[in-house]
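Archive entry. Fields below.
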Amino acid sequence: MEHFTLLLAIVVVTALVFDFTNGFHDTANAMATTISTGAMKPKAAVAMSAVLNLVGAFLSVEVAKTISGGIINENGIETSVIFAALVGAILWNLLTWLLGLPSSSSHALFGGLIGAAVMSAGFSAVNGGTIVTKVLIPAVAAPLVAGIAAMLATRLTYRIGGTTRNRSTSKGYRAGQIASAGLVSLAHGTNDAQKTMGVITLALVTGGVLAPGANPPMWVIVSAGVAIALGTYLGGWRIIRTMGKGLTDLQPQQGFTAQTSAATVILASSNLGFSLSTTQSCSGAVMGAGLGRKGGVVRWSTATRMFVAWGLTLPAAGVVAAVAELLTKQGTWGVVATAALLIAGSGAIWLASRREPVDHTHVTGEQTPAGGTTGTGPAAEPEPAGVITAAIAAVSPPPAGPTSAVDGHAPELAAAGSSSHTPAPAATV
Amino acid sequence: MKIDWAALGTVFGVSLAATIALVGLFTLGIAGLSRHEAAGARGGSATLARTGAFACFGLCAAAVSYGIYLIVV
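PREDICTED_STRUCTURE:
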């Protein structure tokens, strides 16, 4: 460990932070429908997902040898490039979480790597064709495949089972949802915790601590697993609300078909050689299940915001990472400045999120936050307008669920700054 | 640039078939159980419905086990 430089230590910590954001960003994939249909209590659901993520991190024997799947040339990559990529990915993950939009954490990481690599070594470091085959085509295919499967399955389940509900049906769909949500969590742990292990291992190899081609050391596996599990347990309630309530209204039958089709798409795609994003499969499945029921609706305005976020993921994370790489190239002060900017940016996003906290007490959008519970401060506390609030104004947050339209006044808040604040009519808090 | 349309098509086909089969089986199982419950409420019994239901759930459990196998191996 004598080669452990400051930069390397920062990269390892940053990678674990990314893993953590990945965890709470992606809790929604496994648990949003389970929570919104009432199959599990919110806290129990995220706890189960966290445990399965942790287990998943230890399960797989296949080591993530390549973190970008050939999108960038990883030979001779510098440690600072990895750091810059992580900075871009983390900030994008946090911003989409603030807006409650599900977006792919892997794509954020890819975007960061692309931006940092281009800034570091020019466009030749990036394989354009691989971007199309590994990112763009899957981004279109994943929601379509999962959505069509979920829609047809939903139609089928209503045709066979009818719409009647009694004790055994509700118990049955509950069990089914929990089982398929568990599968998604487990698959997420193996895939995404592996990715972080791959990033840390790559950084250790480039830093000269590990020999090239070495397996991740035990402390890397443990810390990556713990980081993703902690993130999952924290619960990305904003995204859970969008996925479980914002995109469509789900009955237990639909929750079950959405979750099942997401699980099969994820497993089929990762085993048949055409990897599809977990987040995009799950979002597609939820929309498909929404369309499959007679009289079901998809809130296309929310869906459109989500699609825009998907489209922006790669370039936005890339631009931030490129700027970060430009800074880190300046030497040690640049690295420290980048780290400080990352902390400041994350802090600003977190502060902005406090203005309208979403937590487990009202994630299903049916009750407003109860007074004394954790983290439910006064919802409409104006913040001085800054970069983040401006960004919120640019992409206004999705209305999620019937009574949770409090999001709607965020743009006005941002535009009005701290002085004049006219509450939107939909604000219920 | 080579797009592996065959792999994408396979993923689509397998996902569609597996989802519909699983959801169909599970719903049949639930329908069987609720028929059994309804019969019980009337004082009768519907053994066939109940047996069929458990067979369906068994197949679903097998599918979940296969899913775990796919994740682990």
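CURATOR_NOTE: Confidence is low (pLDDT under 50) at residues 366-429 of chain A.
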